Automatic annotation (TrEMBL):
Protein name stated in the entry: Zinc finger CGNR domain-containing protein
Coiled coil: none
The organism of origin for this protein: Mycolicibacterium arabiense
SUPFAM superfamilies hit by this protein: Jann2411-like
Keyword tRNA-binding: no
């Protein structure tokens, strides 16, 4: 049994970080979870960043079926996010084509692993930590992200979800202040350059 924690140190919720493993580079879709070795790297980095899981050891093998389940959840989250935001982008669209299928994947993912919260103590301080058993750490992580997706979708943050419409971006982001238009400053710069070039091309 391995301990986990649900604390976050990222500007985006964990389900959105999973959704954002699809990106665009030079007009082509790139998948950061394209094979089990890439899944291994993402799980290790994410687990370390969010204090969810220790990074997998170099000898630990991620089964292809584990990787497929995590990717399926990613694709379901992207479909649900696209439907919520009426995403007009064509590149990087989810292979999950409808909300009903995405919902089924989400519900199945939430039931994958045996994961539950426990109250623990560090000296006089109490804290919540998730623990898991009876399954792989990838399935446990998939379960946690699926449950966090449900929490996100039923929270005010879901209404602030946006697709980043900068040229060549496939990311989503939660609009955390009124003036934010892009997922990152680099996308804002690209959008301004593209607008400038378009204005000059029509002069």
């Amino acid at each position: 049994m391995s301990p986990t924690s649900t604390s976050s140190h990222s500007s985006e919720p964990l389900p959105i970080l999973l959704a954002n493993t699809v990106s665009i580079a030079r007009g082509r879709v790139e998948d950061a979870l394209a094979d089990p070795s890439k899944v291994n790297g993402w799980v290790g980095t994410t687990g370390e960043q969010f204090a969810l899981f220790p990074p997998p050891s170099s000898t630990e093998h991620i089964d292809e079926s584990d990787a497929v389940r995590l990717v399926s959840l990613r694709d379901a989250v992207r479909r649900l996010a696209a439907e919520k935001t009426r995403d007009p982008r064509t590149l990087g669209q989810s292979p999950v084509t409808d909300v009903a299928t995405a919902t089924s994947i989400l519900n199945a993912s939430a039931a994958l692993g045996s994961v539950w919260p426990e109250l623990q103590w560090h000296g006089p301080e109490a804290f919540r930590r998730d623990v898991w058993a009876d399954g792989t750490y990838v399935d446990a992580l998939t379960t946690i992200i699926a449950r966090q997706t449900m929490e996100l979708m039923t929270s005010p943050q879901w209404d602030r979800l946006r697709p980043c419409l900068a040229p060549g971006c496939a990311y989503f982001f939660v609009k955390d202040h009124l003036r934010r238009q892009w997922c990152a400053a680099a996308c804002g710069n690209r959008a301004r350059v593209a607008r400038h070039a378009q204005r000059h091309s029509t002069d």
